[in-house]
Amino acid sequence: MKKTLNQKAWFMVLPVLLLVAFSAIIPLMTVVNYSVQDTFGNNEFFWVGLEWFEEILHSERMHDALSRQAMFTAIILLIEIPLGIFVALHMPKNKGFWSSLCLVLVALPLLIPWNVVGTIWQVFGRVDIGLLGHSLASLGIDYNYTQNSTAAWFTIIIMDVWHWTSLVVLLCYAGLQSIPDAYYQAAKIDQASRWNVFRHIQLPKIKGVLLIAILLRFMDSFMIYTEPFVLTGGGPGNATTFLSIDLVKMAIGQFDLGPAAAFSLMYFLGILLVSYVFYTLMVNSEGQGS
């Protein structure tokens, strides 16, 4: 006997679909509308087609911001992923007081709002009252993140590592906890070294959560705005003007709505494309593991 599907469930999903349409699709269509039009004010627009997209693609300003963004994301991933794995491997494995304490301490940076993180490191890096800035100055190191681009990059990277490595640690720790003890017992019988246990047991078993960690950190670092904006404002000069900061300056500071809309759409599609690649890799990895 053929079963009939209950279509009443769609009535439960409909409010969510309407909410998503209102909060995401409609604003996105507004941006699409601005990206193909220009205005001289008074709410009067005229069609320009793909002119803004061509201008952004050939803009040296956008290329510079993209190179800074790509460099920042690459540095962040190269530091936080190995560091997160290392910390997760050395956390207590048995459930108990020390394990719970470590998890709470590791998760603390994730509880701090992004603008507060920028403010904390803004004070922390000051030469006159900040612990980091004053200590480096006492050692004779020329450190001033408001005037030196190298110091600004160093501060932003350290700030992001402090803030977001915890996410990688928690994901990797959860993956390590899911590995059955039988694998470790077999490795102990075979007298496998610590490196071989990590290479042949732990790393393959946490590959799924590791890809999720890489995906999340890529998206977060490629869209970073609040922390560097609060800390340096994109300076000194344009040294820390990443894509998101440059986009806000274009849209709000200069009020170039057309180029900013085209820029934001390209920004969104680029992140969406890379996220889709990561998602495909995760699905293929799970299919091969099963």
What report would you give on this structure?
This protein has a two-stranded antiparallel sheet. The longest helix has 33 residues. A hairpin with a 5-residue loop joins β1 and β2. The protein is globular and about 75 Å long. The protein has 290 residues and is mainly α. The chain has a single domain, classed as MetI-like fold. The protein starts with 8 loop residues before the first helix and ends with a helix. It is 72% helix and 2% strand. α3 packs antiparallel against α10.
Instruction: Please report which band the strand proportion falls in: under 5%, 5-15%, 15-25%, 25-35%, 35-45% or over 45%.
Output: under 5%
Strand order of the largest sheet: 1-2
Helix-strand makeup class: mainly alpha
CATH superfamily placement? MetI-like
What is the number of E strands?
A: 2
CATH topology heading: MetI-like fold
**Portion in helices:** over 70%
Order of helices and strands: HEEHHHHHHHHHHHH
* CATH architectural designation: Orthogonal Bundle
Major sheet attributes: 2 strands, antiparallel
The radius of gyration computed from the alpha-carbon positions, rounded to a whole number of angstroms, is 24 Å
CATH class: Mainly Alpha
| Number of spatially distinct domains | 1
Indicate the overall shape.
Answer: globular
Overall pLDDT metric: 88
Q: Runs with pLDDT <50, length 5+?
A: none
Q: Give the termini distance in whole angstroms.
A: 33 Å
Number of helices: 13
